Amino acid sequence: AKSCAKGKLATKTAGKLTIATDEPAYEPWFKDDKPANGKGFESAVAYAVAKQLGYDNSAVVWQSVPFNKAFAPGVKTFDFDINQVSISAERKKAVDFSSGYYDVRQAVIALKDSKAAKAKGIADLKGLKLGAQVGTTSLDYIDDVVKPTQEAAAYAKNDQAKSALKNGQVDAIVTDLPTAFYITAAEVTNARIVGQFENQGGAPEQFGLVLDKGSALTSCVSGAVDALRKD
Questions:
Q1: How far apart are CA 193 and CA 185, in angstroms?
Q2: What pLDDT shows up at residue 2?
Q3: Closest alpha carbon to 85 in 72, 224, 18, 74
Q4: What pLDDT, on a 0 to 100 scale, did the predictor assign at position 164?
Q5: pLDDT value, residue 200
Q6: Which of 65, 67, 133, 223 is the most exposed place for a label (fewest CB within 10 A)?
Q7: Helical H runs in the chain?
C-alpha cells in the first residue's frame, strides 16, 4: 500500500520512528537497560520492524513509558511501544495492537527448597501467597486461573516481585516464561521454574506492538511484523 511507503509514514516526528518501552528495560528483552543498543529480543525486533518500514537505526528515537501507561486510554506520545504487552480484547478497547511478534506462556517461579516448588498443578498453588506485576496477564492468571484463597500481591515493577520472592514475602511469583528463565538463571538463582500454564481458550497468548487507537500506522506495522515472522 502506498501509505506504507518506506520511511514516509505519518510518524510523530517526520522521518523518525519513536519507539517506547519501560524503564528499567529488563533482560532478556533488552540488554544493560539500554533499549537503543539493539541487543535483547525486543530491542532487536524494534529495529527489525523499523528497517522493514524504511527507518534505519539512526532514525529510531527511544522514549520511556511505564508498562501500564503504554496501553491505557489516551493519546500516545510514541509511534509504537514494545514492552511484553499481551494482546487482549480488553486492551484493544483503548489501543491498537500489531499482529503478535512473540507467542508466550506464563510461568510460576518459587524458591527451590520451598513448599511452592513442589507444586504439581494449579490445585497445589491455591493456598499459597502469589505475586505478580500489576496490570499484567501474569496477575490475571493468578486471579482467573489459580483463584488463590488469599489475594495476590501486585507489584508496580517486576523488580519488586523478585525481591518479595527472595525475602519470603510471597511463596511464588508469575512472569512470562522467558523472564522466568532469566530470573532463575541470573537473578534469583536459588529459585526454579515450578511449571507453566496452558494457554487459556486454546489460542496462544501473544505480545504485540502497542499503537494509538485508530493509528494510521497499525496496518503498516503489522505488515512489518508479519514479514519478519514469515522470514
A1: 10
A2: 56
A3: 72
A4: 98
A5: 79
A6: 223
A7: 41-52, 67-70, 89-92, 137-140, 158-166, 177-182, 218-230
Helix (H, G, I), strand (E, B) or coil at 14: coil
Cell of 108: 510460576
Measured at the alpha carbon of residue 105, what is the angle toward residues 63 and 156, in degrees to the nearest 5?
45
Global confidence as pTM? 0.91
**Cβ density class 203-220: b for 16+ within 10 Å, e for less:** eebbbbbbbbeebebbbb
The grid cell for 67 is 508498562
Contact status, residue 55 vs residue 4, Cβ threshold 8 Å: no
Mean pLDDT in order along the chain per 10 residues (231 residues): 83 97 95 98 98 98 97 96 96 97 97 97 97 96 97 95 97 97 96 94 90 97 97 94
